[in-house]
Amino acid sequence: MRGTQQYVRNTNVLVTSFDTGDAAWEIVDFAPRIPQGLTVHAPIEVVRLIRPLKRRPRLRIDFDPRPEYARVQPTLVETAAGIEVLGAAAPLVLLTNLPVPYVLATRDFALDGPPWFSFTYGRPAEVRTSRRSSGT
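^ thats the sequence. predicted structure below, dont judge the formating
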């Protein structure tokens, strides 16, 4: 498998591309910065988008958070929009449009559309509701 990684010029957007020869995909990571008048709101959040580039690669998400520098064994709680990680000083929340059971079980899925993930420290201000198919 070959991969490349680069920032989009003059942004905090990191694009990582993978190519197995048979299939290809890219991962886009960024931390949101939301203009609010003369200031910028910077939530404690990382957003990831995975986009298919060639065919339908089979991937899996290995979500294994280790809060408090791995001194805490977290509890993962499925919610309507994602997963809440309990055990840290504040809740950590993973929102996604991928079926949550796929994430919790580290289950393979066909990348036939762009799943997204939003990982926040504390509960997010808004809950995203976009859903996608099961990807099987």
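Confidence is low (pLDDT under 50) at residues 129-136.
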